[in-house]
Design brief:
Shape: elongated
Structural class: alpha+beta
Strand content: 25-35%
Strand order of the largest sheet: 1-2-3-4
Helix content: 25-40%
Number of helices: 4
Order of helices and strands: HEEEEHEEHEEHE
Oligomer: single chain
Distance between the termini: 64 Å
């Protein structure tokens, strides 16, 4: 996709129809663009939405992704409209760190991005911190349970994974033993839970 050149007074080109469909997907795959702005490399592509509005996915290297939606129906979209959606993308310094770049929230509303003027690193930091805090909470709870079971005479901890024969998501379970269970006991336990695998487990001494 080429940008409109200065002095070009030709009529905007409509997205051409294809032989088997009013809007040929093979043509849409060529509606892409790469450019640089504010020192950042951008790339864009059109989403195939023939019964909706023109939607353009835009990626800014080191900044993130947004999806821009035009008020123009896909069937009425032009090359120039595609270029306009790309050219309007604007970056600002991150409102948190003031170092990295972020999408300008005055132009790119919630429908396009939920970063609210933050760079990807600053936006993700509280999410990562929350995940670490939850992980630490689970670790402490696990240690508390291990100590409780050990105080009650349990000496071995089994962590096993069930892979359902009928399909679906795998799931794990924990079981404590006062004496060391044999491989046969563990495998029979997994068989009773209809696991396709009977050797996906760890056995640790408390």
């Amino acid at each position: 996709m080429t940008n409109k050149r200065r002095g070009n007074t030709s009529k905007p080109k409509l997205i051409p129809p294809g032989p088997n469909h009013p809007w040929d997907p093979t043509y849409l795959t060529r509606l892409t663009k790469k450019w640089k702005k504010q020192g950042v490399s951008f790339s864009a592509e059109v989403f195939y939405t023939p019964n909706s509005f023109l939607q353009v996915g835009i990626r800014a290297a080191g900044v993130g992704r947004i999806r821009r939606t035009s008020r123009t129906k896909f069937r009425n979209a032009t090359d120039e409209l595609f270029d306009q959606l790309c050219d309007e993308v604007t970056l600002i310094p991150c409102k948190t760190c003031h170092k990295n770049k972020a999408f300008d929230p005055k132009i790119h509303k919630k429908k396009e991005t939920n970063r609210h003027g933050q760079c990807e690193k600053c936006f993700m930091k509280p999410l990562r911190d929350a995940a670490k805090a939850e992980e630490e909470k689970c670790r402490q709870e696990e240690e508390r349970m291990d100590a409780l079971k050990k105080g009650r005479g349990f000496r071995y901890k089994l962590i096993a994974w069930v892979h359902p024969k009928s399909g679906g998501d795998d799931f794990g379970f924990v079981k404590y033993f006062k004496t060391k269970p044999s491989k046969k006991i563990i495998r029979n336990m997994l068989k009773r839970k209809s696991s396709a695998l009977t050797d996906d487990y760890t056995l640790d001494k408390l």
